Amino acid sequence: MIAPPIPPDEDARRATLRVLQILDTEPDERFDRITRMARRIFQLPIALVSLVDADRQWFKSAQGLDVRETTRDVSFCGHAILSDDILLVPDAHRDPRFADNPLVTGPPQVRFYAGCPVRSPSGHRLGTLCLLDHQPRGFDEDDKATLRDLAFLVEQQFAALYAAMVDELTGLANRRGFESQAGHVVALCQRNAWPATLLFFDLDGFKGVNDRYGHAEGDWALKSFAGLLRYCLRASDVVARIGGDEFVALLSGTATEEKDRAMERLRAQLNALNLRAQRGYALDFSVGSASMSADAPLELETLLTQADAAMYAQKQQRSAAALTPEAGR
Ligand SMILES: Nc1nc2c(ncn2[C@@H]2O[C@H](COP(=O)(O)OP(=O)(O)OP(=O)(O)O)[C@@H](O)[C@H]2O)c(=O)[nH]1
């Protein structure tokens, strides 16, 4: 058996899966309708919408299969997401990649596999719409075209989720996506008596970047800052752009020192970016934070209000400092 290699866009791919908030969710009729249709059209026992996560494939929709996930190393779909083409395995017994795969030698006894990658609007292959049979079988060009059409319907559902939850410019969660994701995380921290910190960022003088260098440059600045947040914070932190030049990050299970280290990393990376990019201005931000400890849990809304107020106070301080005569010397 050959375990599937990791695609080059793996980090961004998994980040997209996270902001879509689709993993481990309840069955959804919008996806089930597509897999039911696939099973009926192709007269096959099993049709799945499989999403490839870090160490597993998780089935958003499964017709004809009781399990909701398998490990990634045995997944056919892990291979299928490596290209835009349909992965076709007419007879797994004759394919060295899969002949001794436990899903072939044991239940569900896969002999035939056809998987069409399904992409997010940002172009990342999140998983597949796939068909499985216990018998070897053929699959002609017409069949492939039909499977592609059905996969497109899955992608349309992703697009709807994406529009609702994701900020199109930066690929981070939008306000709604943040509130939904961060709401769960805060509840989890409250239940387990874990600390959490909310950081509220606002770019400094951003209007001036738009006014002097144009909107496209402003967009570049927003995307660059989003990229830095993604790079400097942990994959488990919830990061979002919630307004024009306003960004938030919810760090869960994080002590103050860790938060301080993350902020140091961010300042250092921002300085490096400003030096490297030489855009005629320096990107900068004000930030405020609010924390809840194990014995003093807070609601998300309170954390947001407190962190926003702290950010605003820092912004006032920074602009006052910029106006003092000492600052100009
Ligand atoms: N390029 C670009 N600009 C945007 C976008 N969304 C909002 N803006 C602009 O962001 C600016 C935000 O305004 P302010 O919050 O007053 O910006 P600021 O100059 O950073 O002000 P301070 O926060 O006081 O430093 C406005 O000029 C908006 O037009 C966007 O998606 N792209």
Automatic annotation (TrEMBL):
InterPro entries in the cross-refs: GAF (IPR003018), GAF-like_dom_sf (IPR029016), GGDEF_dom (IPR000160), Nucleotide_cyclase (IPR029787), Rev_trsase/Diguanyl_cyclase (IPR043128)
GGDEF domain ranges (all copies):
194-329
Q: Which Gene3D superfamilies match?
A: 3.30.450.40, 3.30.70.270
Q: Which Pfam family is one of those matched by this entry?
A: GAF
Please give the superkingdom of this protein's source. Answer: Bacteria
| Entries under PANTHER family matching the protein | GAF DOMAIN-CONTAINING PROTEIN, SLR1143 PROTEIN
Question: Which protein, by its recorded name, is this?
Answer: Diguanylate cyclase (GGDEF)-like protein
Organism of this sequence: Roseateles terrae
